[in-house]
Amino acid sequence: MNQNQLFRSTRWRLAGWYAGVMGLILGVSGFGVYEAIAHAHRVSANQELKSVAGMLHDSLEPTLRQPGRLETAAKRRLPNLCLMRDRTVDNQTQSTLGEFCTAERHTSPAHRLSAIHQGDYFIRFFDKSGQLIAQSGSPPQQLSTELIPENATEQSLLTLKDTSGLRYRHLVLALDTPTNELWGYLQVGRSLADFDDYLASVRIMMLLGLPLAMLLVGVAAWWLAELAMRPIYQSYQQIQQFTADAAHELRTPLAAIRATVESVLRLACISEAESRETLQVIERQNYRLSQLVSDLLLLSRLDRKIQHNQWHLCCIQDLLNDIEEELAALAMTQQIKLTTDIQVDQPIQVLGDEEQLYRLIFNIVVNALHYTPAGGQVKVSLDCRDQWVLIHIQDTGIGIAPEHQKHIFDRFYRINSDRARVSGGSGLGLSIARAIAQAHQGTIQVHSESGKGSQFTIRLPKSV
Ligand code: ADP
Fold this sequence. Notes:
Strand order of the largest sheet: 2-1-4-3-7-6-5
Number of helices: 12
Shape: elongated
Bound molecules: adenosine-5'-diphosphate
Order of helices and strands: HHEHHEHEEEEEHHEHEEHEEHHHEE
Structural class: alpha+beta
Number of strands: 14
């Protein structure tokens, strides 16, 4: 296939398209999977954050008495809580928040929230005016000590990024005293570093995996393109072979006619006997030509599976008797005993084209006569099994070697060209017979042994 320019370029194009489409599908699916993973992580992180914030809010709110003041009970519930000692210092000083926080730490082991304690979380308390009162956990250093989320309405989840590029997700909830007075605000947040690291490793895996997948897709595409084109290439080769064979078969009688006409034209004068002989040669070759052309036309009609509206019930016994009658003279000339054995009493009918069915049986019986030497025997028998009509044509002829048996139904295939040509065959007889049998939903099988004879079995569906 690769030697043929047309097929090679088509294969490249097909493989290219296949690889391109597969690559696109893989890319889009990979992106979809990545987004699904990211979304699932985002949702679970948000849910965890909300539940931690809600739990803190619900457990701390009952302990709050005075707005802006954290009671001891509240302090004990939080790990590593650090309180702002002097809230009157200016903003510049407050940026060094860490210094203040080391002074007053409540590290009671009691009631620590496990998620917060794992280190990813931070908690901050703001008074009504938005000034930081206390914080716990590990908040990003760059966060302002004022209530950050100016735009954050209560309960909205927001993402922050510090100067080193680390991302944080946080939530702000209002805290009220038991007298329903606003106490201040609770900010709960968590670092998204682990989540971002995980997504980064997924991205790297995908970026490394995609070229490898594309390589495999490319190899698979090249192989699949060959697989898809193989039957097309085979039928292309068959058509090429058929065209060459047909041209060769047509050329022979045409060349014979031309040679005859040219030799006669060279003569100064021509007798009546010579002209008659010339015309007879032309007629013979013309007959051969028209026979060949009609065989080719029949094959092409059978190939196109044209639905025949002349199909009707044909009596197989009648066909066999007609064929025996027609070939009796030939059998006698060749000193072959031709017999017909019909083992069924009722008329056996097959739905089909009578002319074609006649041709199907005729071709095989004629072959049997042609390839059986004098003194031999050709026996045609008819049998019925289940819903099938079986016609056996058995001869005691030269037989067919096993290596030829699978080719004899091919167009223009002749085992011994010279001998077959003498018998008038063009190598289309059996291919026409098989095409007719297939058009009638039937089959032909051959059993043969070199030097002993052959048996052809035609199987056709019986009409009930
Ligand atoms: P042809 O027109 O040459 O007979 P066919 O298609 O009818 O072509 O047959 C193909 C070849 O099969 C023949 O050339 C012949 O060699 C072989 N063949 C067909 N029938 C028989 C048979 N009954 N015995 C031996 N050889 C046969």
